[in-house]
TrEMBL record:
Substrate binds at K124, D156, T194, R195, Y196, E197. S-adenosyl-L-methionine binds at E46, E71, D98, D120. It comes from the Bacteria. Keywords: Methyltransferase, S-adenosyl-L-methionine, Transferase, tRNA processing. This is tRNA (guanine-N(7)-)-methyltransferase. It comes from Anoxybacter fermentans. Its EC number is 2.1.1.33. It catalyses: guanosine(46) in tRNA + S-adenosyl-L-methionine = N(7)-methylguanosine(46) in tRNA + S-adenosyl-L-homocysteine. Pfam families: Methyltransf_4. The keyword tRNA processing applies.
């Protein structure tokens, strides 16, 4: 079990009205996100939000979309969660939890898009099942994504990227807008940099990116 260094961070998240916290609230939220947000706008989810650079920027650019950040580490989630309250961002919410329990938080078809930004690459073969694009996770995403919904994935790790291309295409997803060098591609202009991405780009690493459509089959 992970040692919690900052119990105050957990307390802070528990009090934050934009955060869905743990088992006591999760039963009531699945199928009820429209009530939470007070509208029927599409729901885009970012799994592994970290300190929230991406979700803050994209939520600012797209007030017509509801963004939910899913993160299992309290010390990082406090930052975007604080921001949402401080700046009264009504199209932002967060789930403090592990993505392996995603189906507890969403009804079938409730999610329109999932962003996976620089998910942990888990390079050792025996750890591949922890990758967020492993079929174990893809099957969960399929339960909550609407048909025609999408996964947008970025990484700096080529092996993880190739693994993801194979697993997505072999599990009912249609791939599009693929690049092996995002920052020298046509997708660069609209790209929103994440914290990790900034770090890798400054080091001169190529960024791999894809979009995958859930076909329903
Ligand atoms: C390498 S960091 C990337 C953070 C951010 N997306 C970025 O690009 O700057 C991966 C993040 O995913 C979170 N994470 C990893 N596995 C997760 C899971 N199963 N459920 C929720 N969050 C997860 C980690 O806690 C960490 O904050």
């Amino acid at each position: 079990m992970r040692i919690r260094n900052k119990p105050w961070a957990e307390d802070e998240l528990r009090k934050n009205p934009r955060v869905i916290f743990g088992p006591e609230t999760k039963k009531n939220i699945s199928g009820h996100w429209q009530e939470f947000f007070g509208n029927s706008n599409p729901i885009h989810l970012e799994i592994g939000t970290g300190k929230g650079h991406f979700i803050i920027e994209i939520a600012e650019q797209h007030p017509e979309i509801n963004f939910i950040g899913f993160e299992k580490v309290e010390e990082v989630l406090i930052y975007p969660a604080r921001y949402a309250v401080e700046y009264d961002k009504k199209n932002m919410a967060f789930i403090y939890g592990d993505a392996q329990f995603i189906t507890n938080y969403f009804a079938p078809g409730e999610v329109e898009r999932i962003y996976l930004n620089f998910s942990d690459p888990w390079p050792k073969k025996r750890h591949h099942k922890r990758r967020l694009t492993h079929p174990r996770f893809l099957n969960l995403y399929k339960e909550v994504l609407k048909v025609g919904g999408e996964i947008h994935f970025k990484t700096d790790n080529r092996d993880f990227f190739e693994f993801s291309l194979e697993k997505l295409s072999g599990n009912g997803f249609l791939l599009k807008n693929i690049t092996f060098d995002l920052h020298n591609s046509e997708y660069a202009e609209k790209n929103i940099m994440t914290r990790y991405e900034k770090k890798w780009v400054e080091m001169g690493k190529a960024i791999y990116r894809l979009e995958a459509i859930w076909t329903g089959k």
